What we know:
The chain has about 400 residues and is an alpha/beta fold. The chain has helices at about 15-30, 75-80, 90-95, 100-105, 115-130, 155-170, 180-190, 235-245, 285-290, 305-310, 315-320, 330-340, 355-365, 370-385, 390-410, and strands spanning about 5-10, 35-40, 60-65, 65-75, 110-115, 140-145, 175-180, 195-200, 220-225, 250-260, 275-280, 295, 325-330, 345. It folds into 2 domains: about 5-200 and about 390-410, 3-Layer(aba) Sandwich (Rossmann fold), CATH 3.40.50; about 220-385, Glycogen Phosphorylase B (Rossmann fold). Helices cover about 40% and strands about 20% of the residues. Strands 3-4-2-1-5-6-7-8 form an 8-stranded mixed sheet, sandwiched between helices. The chain has a 6-stranded parallel sheet with strand order 11-10-9-12-13-14, with helices on both faces. Strand 5 (about 110-115), helix 5 (about 115-130) and strand 6 (about 140-145) form a beta-alpha-beta unit. The chain starts with a strand and ends with a helix.
Amino acid sequence: MGKKVCMLVTDHPFLDSRIFKREALSLKKMGYEVTMIVPRKNKYLLDIDGTPIKDRFLTPSFKYKGITIITYDWESSRAFLSKVRDNPVRWEHSGFHNQLTQLGMKQNADIYHVHEYLSLFAGVGIKHQLRKKGKEVKLIYDSHELTPDPFDPNYTEEIRNILKERLLSMLKEVDYVITISPSIKSWFLVQNPAIPVEIIYNSPPLSNTYQPKKQTDSLTVCYEGNMDNKRGSKEKITGITEFCSAASDFKFKVIGGARFGDSFPLPQTLTNKIHLTGWVDYHAISNHMADVDAGWIDYEDLHHSLNRLYAMPNKFFSYLNNGVPVVVNRCHEMENFIRKHHCGLVLDKADASAQDYAEAFLYLNKNKSILQQMSENARAVMENKYSWEHMQKRLANVYEELLNEGATMHM
């Protein structure tokens, strides 16, 4: 095949499970030459929990698992990338001189695959400048979320409008949008009905260590992923555990947890009820879920975030992959999925309390046959339709379509 792919990253850690572990490695396996250009923050690359990696990956570029990694300085590039807010007629002079755009141009790739709003800006710059040199390249915008979020109060209406207008300008240069949920796909098609959009869910490879759950009198609930004020409430975990432990044999397992510089101190009374695994290897998650009966996702303050309503996070599919039914509050996309596939419980509340969740878990504990059926449905839907093996085919089709289109144009 011999085609070159260059991925541009501004915010995600370079070992991100979607970008590196799934997409980049899958593309390499398909025969593409893959380069990633990723940011150093305060001179270091960051691990998945935000910890600076100080003992390796210190050279400006290196190879890792067959992927070429090129690094750039985030702090010195941010001001130039923020020029995306300028009038597009000024981008050539005000914004495209950032390191990410310049390093990307030097790769002279066939397809540029970008993952955030600002890396999209860098990708548009690359496409503009390579066109001047007589080379037409393809640009994929892998939109993990909507930027700007139309509901986010952190944006003023003026800034939100500017960012949206600039996004619509950039989309004119995009050849394909990849995103993570049907609702986000629909949003893009409303903005530009002519642009091709593919959904590639945040699904892991199908676990080969999965064993059907054996129901017991106890119940273990799991939270997987980052834990901060927005993702995983420490107070709710302790509240759920206190409430459920008073009525049943109950444990809460946290896989992942607090990010770099933060912590999750446990009340003395719950140290034998809440198990913090810390951050574990991506491929070891299945082993840690072997004894888990139900997974928990809680997105708060939904009326201030369209992204949370539309979210289909990694942890959602990680639970299903291991036959773990999901309990979630009323989030539009996950609610639709759970109701369609009967693989969990949706609380009919946008703002659910610890007691609300605890009552849902106690219900499942008392109704093991329902829990068992949900578990079987969760695993089956991943096997049949949603595991990374299925998503990988979608990714391959996007690339093949773009390359075939390019070959037709040059005939």
